[in-house]
Specification:
Structural class: alpha+beta
Radius of gyration: 33 Å
Number of helices: 13
Strand content: 15-25%
Number of strands: 12
Strand order of the largest sheet: 4-5-10-7-9-8
Shape: elongated
Number of domains: 2
Order of helices and strands: HHEEEHEEHEHEHEEEHEHEHHHHH
Largest sheet: 6 strands, mixed, barrel
């Protein structure tokens, strides 16, 4: 019963100065709202990055050709041309756990279809490429092993390229010209969206890698090889098997550097996630400053309240209230201020995150965990910054308090 009376007295004191109470809570409201909105932006960015990495396919290992030094300038991985078609075929046959392999060459070209033309990338791939990338055909079909062996003049169009070249008709069965070479369109891919680097994955033409090497890129070596492991648990085993196979085939002696580079989705995901986590932490830290300022505001107002209510405190002590009761009353007032501000701040943060998504089209993701942490932190701010004023009030001498004017 005594605690109910203390709680009632605390809320009665807060209602006595409604405007001051509202202004005091404003700092907490803004602080909690800013933290939730900023963390939501960071989590949204992280989720978007993870989705784009997942768009690469499942359990994908990318093997890149080595670098070459030309006049003291290194071209970077992919420029040396150290990978061969035979390397790719050997991976599919000799590496346990490798379920799909697609050799890859790339070039750019101006594509023409009737009166329309479009500059895009031409990707030479194997028949397993769409399986590796988990990319479905929207219309038509993928080229076959027979097309690869014969270096057939056939292709599959990305959605963007198909829309640019054939805006008002079905591309399947039509002929386009790539570097003045007539190529038959076998199919159109489903839209996949932007890559993790922001480029349009649908702005492409996919041809058999043999066709790309002989007719468009004019190369005899591969730029890279895409390999899919049968399961996530086998990725490390497959990656080690590829490294061992290539070192053997390329006659790389022990202690010498590899002439190839491998990356898998997990490594890319970890690197990108680390970046987004740092950004999220930075945004949350900046937003937390306003929460700290709100806590200082609570301490300031509570100290003013203790001074204003010194005679009230003295009267309460004179009629039997103990220091513990006074401490509890003022602590409850501080926690009530911060907790109510925290609840309103949650509404502000969730609403702000949705507004940012609507206006700026930025992805935001407000998780229940971030809401719980923000509310708990706001309540902790009330306890931390309210304890000193409450303790000061509880230690007042009753006689001096009654004499205070």
């Amino acid at each position: 019963m005594r605690y109910f009376v203390i709680l009632k007295a605390a809320f009665r004191a807060l209602r006595r100065n409604k405007l001051r109470t509202a202004l005091t809570m404003l700092g907490i409201i803004i602080g909690v709202g800013a933290v939730i909105a900023m963390v939501g932006i960071g989590n949204g960015a992280k989720a978007q990055v993870q989705a784009r990495i997942a768009a690469l396919g499942q359990n994908v290992i990318m093997v890149f050709s080595g670098s070459v030094n030309r006049g003291g300038v290194f071209t970077g991985f992919g420029g040396a041309g150290t990978l061969t078609v035979e390397d790719a075929l050997a991976m599919g046959k000799e590496v346990p756990g490798a379920s799909a392999v697609s050799p890859e060459v790339r070039s750019g070209a101006q594509i023409m279809a009737g009166n329309n033309n479009w500059n895009t990338s031409v990707m030479g791939e194997g028949v397993d490429y769409l399986t590796i990338r988990q990319w479905d055909i929207a219309d038509g079909a993928m080229f076959t092993d027979s097309d690869v062996r014969s270096a057939a003049k056939v292709c599959v169009l990305g959605k963007t390229t198909a829309d640019k070249l054939f805006p008002d008709e079905d591309p399947v069965g039509k002929t386009i010209r790539i570097k003045n070479v007539p190529v038959k369109v076998l199919g159109v891919l489903k839209a996949k969206g932007a890559s993790m680097m922001g480029s349009d994955q649908d702005d492409t033409v996919i041809v058999p890698y043999t066709t790309g090497m002989k007719r468009f890129a004019g190369v005899t070596m591969l730029r890279s090889i895409n390999v899919q492991a049968a399961s996530a648990e086998q990725m490390a085993e497959v990656q080690n098997g590829i490294a061992e196979l290539l070192r053997q085939r390329h006659r790389i002696q022990p202690g010498r550097d590899d002439d190839f580079l491998m990356r898998n989705q997990q490594e890319i995901a970890e690197a990108m996630s680390a970046t987004t986590e740092v950004m999220t932490a930075l945004l949350a830290a900046i937003a937390s400053v306003s929460l700290l300022v709100g806590g200082i505001g609570i301490m300031n107002i509570m100290l003013v309240s203790v001074t204003e209510r010194t005679r009230e405190i003295g009267i309460r002590m004179a009629v039997g209230a103990r220091g513990h009761d006074i401490l509890l009353q003022f602590l409850i007032e501080a926690v009530a201020l911060s907790s109510t501000g925290g609840l309103l701040g949650i509404l502000l943060g969730v609403g702000g995150a949705r507004l940012i998504t609507m206006i700026k089209q930025w992805p935001t993701l407000v998780s229940p965990q971030s809401i719980i942490i923000a509310f708990a932190f706001s309540a902790a701010v009330g306890v931390f910054f309210g304890f000193y004023p409450a303790r000061k009030a509880s230690q007042l001498d009753p006689i001096d308090a009654l004499r205070y004017e």
